[in-house]
Amino acid sequence: MIGYINGQIFEVHEGKAVVLASGAGVGYSVTLPLSSAYASLHAGTPVTLWIHTHVREDALDLYGFLSREEKEIFLTLLTVNGIGPKGAIGILSKVEIPTLVRAILEGDQVALTEIPGIGKKTAERVVVELKDSMRKKAENGLLPNDWLMAAASVGALAASPSAKSAAFAILSFREAKDALVGLGYRESEVVSVLKKVQESAPKASPRTEDVVKQALKELR
């Protein structure tokens, strides 16, 4: 199974790229998202791609991503009943990842249905099947900070000023965990306390410093 390619773009057309692997003398046909991050790829561009290999009875398809985290989002979408590789790559071609992450974390089915290719039933399945796992990925540092910050900004724009942004809350709690562990507290103890703080948090998005102060009261 191919999981990673480092090489150079030989040609790219309509979301398909032929990538010449460094030193191998072999060109791999890779399907890429049709998003703005990939618009600069052209013949001669050095590129590193994280690859998902999808094996079918009559074919072996490669899907490539510029980061491990984007590939992880793609794989997460594949766990939803009814979404295959083509559907997942189509979703990532039509929506910025922070917008997708924000919608999943906050259970915003309306926002999900605005993504071409996602109907009401699929949006419901995405929320039901991915909300908890996406939150765990975010809390465990498997989603980049800039994604969560961007997702929090999208939430703030889309919701009322008093609404709690799940992405912002997760970012605050993640930063609080790092700060508390840095002070010498055991990570397992910190996580347990932060869960309690999270359950008692007000509806407004908590600031990191407020979360740390509340957690320290519990830890002492």
Question: How would you characterize this protein structure?
Answer:
- The protein has helices at residues 68-78, 85-94, 97-105, 109-113, 120-139, 145-158, 166-182, 187-200, 208-219, and strands at 4-13, 16-21, 27-31, 46-55, 60-65.
- By secondary structure, the chain is an alpha+beta fold.
- Helix 1 crosses helix 2 (85-94) and helix 3 (97-105) packs across helix 6 (145-158).
- The relative contact order is 0.09.
| CATH top level assignment of the largest domain | Mainly Alpha
Number of E strands:
5
Overall pLDDT score: 84
Rg calc: 20 Å
Number of domains: 3
Q: How much helix, percentage-wise, in residues?
A: 40-55%
Instruction: Give the helices and strands as they follow along the chain.
Output: EEEEEHHHHHHHHH
Proportion in β-strands: 15-25%
Number of helices: 9
How does the helix and strand content classify structurally?
A: alpha+beta
Label the CATH architecture of the largest domain: Orthogonal Bundle
End-to-end separation = 50 Å
Large-scale geometry: globular
Biggest sheet strand order reads 1-2-3-5-4
Low-confidence stretches: 156-163
User: Major sheet, described briefly?
Assistant: 5 strands, mixed, barrel
Could you state the CATH homologous superfamily of the largest domain?
A: 5' to 3' exonuclease, C-terminal subdomain
CATH domain topology of the largest domain: DNA polymerase, domain 1
